[in-house]
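Protein modeling request. Please complete all fields; requests missing the sequence field cannot be processed.
Requester role: graduate student
Desired output: 3D structure, token encoding
Chains: 1
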Amino acid sequence: MKRQRRIKILATIGPASNDEKTLEQLVRAGADVFRINMSHASHEVLAASVKLIRKVEKSVGHPIGILVDLQGPKLRVGKFLNGFCTLKHNDYFIFDTDKKDGDHSRVYLPHPEIFNSISKGDNLLLDDGKIQLIVTEVEKNKITSQVIHGGKLSDKKGVSLPDTLLSLGALTKKDYADLDAALENDADWIALSFVQRPDDIYDIRKIVKGKAGILAKIEKPQAVERLEEIILLSDAIMIARGDLGVEMPIESVPGLQKQMIRKARKHGKPVVVATQMLESMISAPVPTRAEVSDVSTAVFEGADAVMLSAESAAGDYPIKAVEMMNRVAIAVEGDKNFTSIIRAQATEPEATAADAISAATRQVAETLNLAAIVTYTSSGSTGLRAARERPATPIIALSPNLRTARRLALVWGLHCVQTEDAKSLENMVERATSIALLEGIARLGDRIAITAGVPLGTPGATNMLRIAFVADNKKPARKHKRVKSHKKAKLDK
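Delivered output (493 residues):
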């Protein structure tokens, strides 16, 4: 399962891919993490999908991450008498609390939080931004608006409010139930939709309590305004370009993508680029040239992962889509300009021993042309620091905790292996060199860099760098643990 590229691939599963054979093919094609979208999955489907993924994980002998994506609040208009109405430029249109079917002049809006938060002059976007209105008057139970860009508005179409900070949290009743189900099934990551403020991250942390990583989806202008705070409080972020492009000028999204990737890298937090990356492969066996360029841009920028949505969940060519993304990533990372571009975007390490060791390890590994950087990481923090440096040298992350290894499957450049914790410095070196050899990343006679925290097993205390030769030991190398079945694995409670 040694990858030929460092960026990770996150594949959404659905009707086109939710069987054991296809899941294994997706992993072997390049998928590192699977996404389960709770907008479409029941709790029964969630449990069955996790069970299948863990069977595949055991079959391939390599940790696989699972991300459960919560739906978040869905704001929609009510129904129309004829199923739709047509809004024309400069017409006035009313949203109210009357539950009867709408007509050409009004419609029911079943969201009191909008009436409490919206102001005159705010924009209202309907049907994924196809229709734009501006608020001209706000009353207790009525919002009057004027049509800027009209069109056909059908039953239950979505409502977006780019200028309005809504007085509702990111978790609905459905999300609370879905979150409980995700934690019961030992999901590795929880993706939080509709993030507006740092408090949204605090709310979910109280429930998750460290059992899974929290990934904040950046899809609202309000989240962009407080991006730094949200990144610091989250374990990872996702650039949800689809919704972001609806609520913000679409031409601003590429620049925001670059800013977000750099900010996430600065703080050592994984960042996922998502939405429409290989969209045409839902129905075609090859992508467009523009889509290939889009994926390439994310790779050149140093994103931790790129995501497939409908391409792998409901498309006609899920395996080909993963294979294509894998091939594009390998080609970009093999480009002669890749390392210099990645290095130009690097940030200075923080003034801590752990960050200094990680930065020095990258420099030593590249200067001495070492075969690998092997990092011992119990909580995952050492692995994250190693990845933040974006070294040209392969990184092997060794952890005694299977949950940590699975969670780090999302992180740039980390080849994750579950193994027993080292018992001494000698055992640490022996184990690191043996695993580097067994995993096919180093050969006999190569040198590797080893980082760890001393005393051994101390979470987050990276303070040691050691260079070791990969030698043919007289006694057989102790085999490291392969990924076990979910029930038998020793998990970090």
